[in-house]
Amino acid sequence: MFVLVSLALAANATEVHPKFIWKKCTKAGCTNVNGFLVHDKHLEGGTWHRGGEQLDYEKEVGVVTNGGTVSQRLMSTYKGAKVTGSRIYILEENDKQYEEFKLVGKELSYTVDMSQIPCGVNAALYTSEMPQSGKKTSEDPFGPEGGTGYCDANCVDGDCCPEFDIQEASSKAMVFTAHCCESKTHCDTSGCGYNPYRDSGDRTFWGGTVNVNSPVTVVTQFVGSGTLTEIKRLYVQGGRVVKAAQSLNDVFCKWGSGQFAQYSMAKMGASFQRGHVLVFSLWASDGMSWMDGGNAGPCRSYNVASIKASQPNLKVTWSNVKFGDIDSTY
């Protein structure tokens, strides 16, 4: 079933977006930025949300905000159709355009509660080189205010662009991955990522060294001056800072040679400098072994239908999003 809102109605209406506070930081301290959140125009489950129709964020897509905290619920109902998860973006203080982050030489941090996320459910936070003004068409004339313009390295909805997965994770495994693009129609869909379970054989890092039953602050540092050279990861929990055993760089990624000759940290950095939009996402699939099963994690079976039926209200909670100078956000 597809639900379409008439353009006549949409032209005279503007969706009210949830307020969302994040912080911009320097070594001198952090200041609040009073932004907004908007849901992607597409709702998983066969329905489409148009920018002129008011969406009940809590009831219809399970998104609840409170100051600088946002949670995403697994199952919701929109116009009688079941909706799984959600995908939301930060809007600028003017509530008109997506907030763009230029990441080279900066770091981004946030606190996440993963305690309710089982095998097969992906709590993802990532960036995408989406157009700041969205993608207006005759059918979708709303731009960012209607959640249009999504693109990623897997060319979802046919639109390809560089993507950086800051985290794709359940309570069983965690991976962060960079995806460059060769052109507007071809990207490195596999990307270069680090998962301690898979790449270092550390089967107790995520869930042991990092206690997934308690909130953890995730810090990602985009090292470079003008040109990106390395992406580092830190975890902060209980007053302790834990460095990931591996950062992403051209040597680890084997970028710059062979089939990956068209990809590099410098190319990823050039995309970052053009500006990336921050994406909060929750979704589920029986085909999630690449993230937390096989050699990637301890999950050995998946039954998403059972999880949706028995745990529809499970959620991921994000808070305290900070962006700024390296070593200024934690």
TrEMBL record:
GO molecular function: cellulase activity
Keywords, ordered alphabetically: Carbohydrate metabolism, Cellulose degradation, Glycoprotein, Glycosidase, Hydrolase, Polysaccharide degradation, Signal
PANTHER family: 1,4-BETA-D-GLUCAN CELLOBIOHYDROLASE B, ENDO-BETA-1,4-GLUCANASE CELB
Annotated TM spans: none
Phylogenetic placement of the source organism: Eukaryota, environmental samples
Catalytic activity: Endohydrolysis of (1->4)-beta-D-glucosidic linkages in cellulose, lichenin and cereal beta-D-glucans
Protein name: cellulase
SUPFAM superfamilies noted in UniProt: Concanavalin A-like lectins/glucanases
Pfam family, one: Glyco_hydro_7
GO biological process: cellulose catabolic process
Top-level EC class: hydrolase
Family: Belongs to the glycosyl hydrolase 7 (cellulase C) family.
Signal peptide extent: 1-18
InterPro entries with a match to the protein in the record: ConA-like_dom_sf, Glyco_hydro_7, Glyco_hydro_7_sf
EC code(s) of this entry: 3.2.1.4
